[in-house]
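Key result, reporting period 2: structure in, sequence out.
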């Protein structure tokens, strides 16, 4: 602990800034931010491997709370940095955004470009240790965040890089302990890490990635020889593919490496997952445009060449070739520029023509082959269906538009609108049931709160085609009230309410309605979710009355807390919103100064897509499998509580009935 002095601390001011405002660097200090520390380290190792140096990365979650990452690449440079006069290792872990300094000359492509760098991991760790194995030598360095004079100095090099022995190995090993003074919870989650590593393994074919969790004695090796082909296969596992195996194309043009894999499934949605240098681009961009242009062109050509459009009614548009499409597009290039609201959209104009060229050539070759003719036929057949439905949907949409303009903005269906015209402050509550809707209407602040009561359950949009979805009265009312339009026509600037609040009962039916609404928003109005406009209201589950005082509890834990310290009380359990008075509903759930709400966010569109397909889709098999794998039928906790009032001897019968229903 002697090899640093005050001069060093000045150099490290950057790292102290990270600790002062972790949010600016890693977003949150919640679980997402914690895992970000690990992604930074893993990305660095993967960069080395993806550029062809080495083939293996091992991630270990240790019992002592540390995480480590080992690669068999060239090893972080150990020689002194010409300007900074400290080892390359020290530069990497103490300078913000140091990655680029090495990256440019040494790497053809670099994924870490978007990253904030390994120094951020160092800044937010209790300690971080590095071993470098290089040129027959083993090197070691250690950094610590140390308290001095009531101030914490982040990432201080307490043991500067030194040679510690000989080795035949090559590579880099980094081990760190997240700082519990920064993160509430410093426990890494096995599944979160596994999912991330899977994605990485799919995108870097042939790379061996190992995850070892010493805390729970679990271990998994990930290596996909098929790369993104295997990715598409796994994305379509719970759906019905139109052909096997997925189409795969790969080529390099003007220093841009393009790989594409695609498949069609019997659903109506389009799922394109695109990446640039292993970084997801959920907002799309020039590379996606290039791919779509190529797909449309090649499939149109195929249909013409094989004389498949006899029906005069059909004129394909690009959308028709993307119904049920599942595609992964991964490109690698230099000097990437990201744009868009969340900086996840590729902006480089040159990428468009390059991707289009590779895809056009590859797809043309694929469909020219005699043995792939039936694949082409099947896709065109599907596109025809899409084109017909599109025509039908347009008629339905026109109808919806006409209907809305007739009824005007003052009354759409049963919407009780607010008086304010200021969308920035306006809210709409989508309320389960007419009776609760009535209560909400009485309880609201009518200046800025609108109420939209739902009769029964809206249609599950996951199981229906767009024309059927749009024919549904409840859905039409919701679309009309929100004002943005849907799908391609979606325009955020036409949003009439800044907050769209789902308010359903805290029971199975209420949960189901919530799922149905979220599914609809995810599929047809996704920007509302990414923009943070969707909320779930949280009505209390219980009211405890004691000495004339009323205390509301929003969870079983809260109820326990309150009743533990209270004598002589009565509990009222709210089974539905309808049991509350208008005033109670206002105070507990609607009053912005008192209520709490859950904001719905979208962190992982791939996972969300998968989960929604499984839970809400029309294939029963995957849902049933999931329940059988994960449900603990011996521990029907909440279910038991519901049964308390029932004859206890009936409980067994009920559980059996429930299981039977589930399996049906
Ligand atoms: C840079 O250019 C010269 C040769 O080494 C290149 C390099 O930095 N390679 C490298 C970095 N391999 N592995 C890393 C690395 C691995 C881990 C686990 C963590 C970090 C921050 C970097």
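The corresponding designed sequence is given below.
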């Amino acid at each position: 602990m002697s090899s640093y002095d005050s001069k060093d601390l000045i150099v490290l001011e950057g790292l102290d800034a990270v600790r002062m405002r972790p949010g600016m660097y890693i977003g949150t200090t919640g679980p997402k931010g914690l895992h970000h520390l690990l992604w930074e380290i893993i990305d660095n190792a993967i960069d080395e491997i993806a550029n062809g140096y080495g083939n293996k990365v091992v991630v270990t979650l240790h019992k002592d709370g540390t995480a480590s990452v080992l690669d068999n690449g060239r090893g972080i440079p150990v020689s002194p940095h010409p300007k900074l006069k400290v080892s390359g290792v020290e530069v990497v872990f103490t300078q913000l955004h140091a990655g680029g300094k090495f990256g440019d000359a040494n790497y053809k492509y670099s994924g870490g470009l978007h990253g904030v760098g390994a120094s951020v991991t160092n800044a937010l760790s209790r300690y971080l240790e590095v071993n470098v194995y290089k040129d027959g030598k083993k090197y070691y360095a250690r950094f610590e965040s140390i308290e001095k004079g009531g101030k914490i100095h982040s990432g201080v090099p307490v043991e500067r890089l030194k040679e510690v022995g000989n080795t035949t190995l090559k590579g880099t090993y980094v081990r760190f302990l997240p700082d519990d003074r920064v993160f509430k919870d410093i426990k890494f989650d096995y599944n979160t890490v596994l999912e991330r590593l899977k994605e990485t393994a799919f995108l870097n074919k042939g790379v061996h990635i190992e995850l070892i969790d010493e805390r729970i004695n679990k271990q998994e090796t990930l290596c996909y020889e098929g790369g993104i082909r295997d990715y598409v296969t796994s994305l379509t596992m719970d759906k019905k593919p139109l052909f096997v195996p997925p189409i795969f194309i790969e080529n390099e043009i003007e220093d841009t490496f393009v790989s594409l894999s695609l498949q069609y499934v019997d659903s109506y949605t389009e799922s394109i997952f695109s990446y640039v240098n292993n970084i997801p681009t959920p907002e799309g961009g020039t590379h996606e445009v290039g791919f779509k242009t190529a797909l449309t062109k090649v499939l149109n050509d195929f249909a013409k060449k094989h004389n498949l459009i006899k029906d005069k009614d059909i004129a394909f548009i690009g959308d028709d070739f993307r119904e049920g499409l599942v595609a992964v597009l991964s490109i690698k290039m230099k000097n990437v520029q990201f744009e868009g609201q969340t900086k996840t959209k590729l902006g480089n104009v040159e990428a468009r023509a390059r991707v289009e060229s590779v895809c056009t050539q590859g797809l043309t070759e694929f469909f020219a082959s005699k043995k792939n003719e039936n694949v082409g036929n099947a896709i065109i057949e599907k596109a025809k269906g899409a084109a017909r439905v599109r025509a039908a949907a347009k008629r339905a949409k026109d109808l919806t538009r006409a209907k809305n303009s007739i009824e005007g903005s003052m009354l759409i269906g049963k919407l009780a609108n607010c008086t304010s015209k200021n969308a920035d402050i306006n809210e709409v509550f989508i309320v389960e049931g007419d009776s609760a809707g009535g209560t909400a209407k009485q309880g609201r602040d009518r200046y800025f709160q609108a109420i939209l009561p739902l009769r029964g359950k809206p249609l599950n949009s996951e199981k229906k085609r767009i024309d059927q979805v749009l024919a549904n009265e409840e859905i039409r009312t919701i679309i009309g009230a929100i004002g943005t339009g849907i799908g391609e026509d979606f325009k955020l600037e036409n949003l009439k309410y800044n907050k769209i609040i789902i308010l359903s009962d805290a029971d199975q039916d209420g949960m189901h309605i919530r799922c149905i609404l979220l599914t609809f928003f995810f599929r047809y109005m996704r920007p509302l979710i990414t923009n943070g406009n969707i909320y779930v209201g949280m009505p209390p589950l219980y009211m405890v009355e004691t000495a004339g005082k009323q205390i509301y509890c929003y969870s079983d834990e809260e109820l326990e807390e309150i009743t533990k310290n209270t004598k002589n009380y009565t509990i009222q359990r709210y089974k539905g919103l309808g049991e509350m008075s208008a005033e109670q509903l206002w105070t507990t759930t609607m009053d912005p100064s008192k209520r709490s709400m859950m904001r719905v966010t979208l962190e992982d569109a791939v996972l969300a897509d998968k989960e929604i397909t499984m839970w809400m889709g029309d294939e029963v098999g995957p849902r049933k499998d999931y329940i059988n794998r994960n449900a603990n039928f011996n521990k029907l906790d909440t279910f038991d509580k519901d049964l308390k009032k029932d004859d206890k001897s009936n409980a067994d019968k009920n559980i059996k009935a429930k299981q039977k229903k589930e399996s049906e």
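The mean pLDDT is 88. The longest strand covers residues 151-166. This case is discussed further under Risks and Mitigation.
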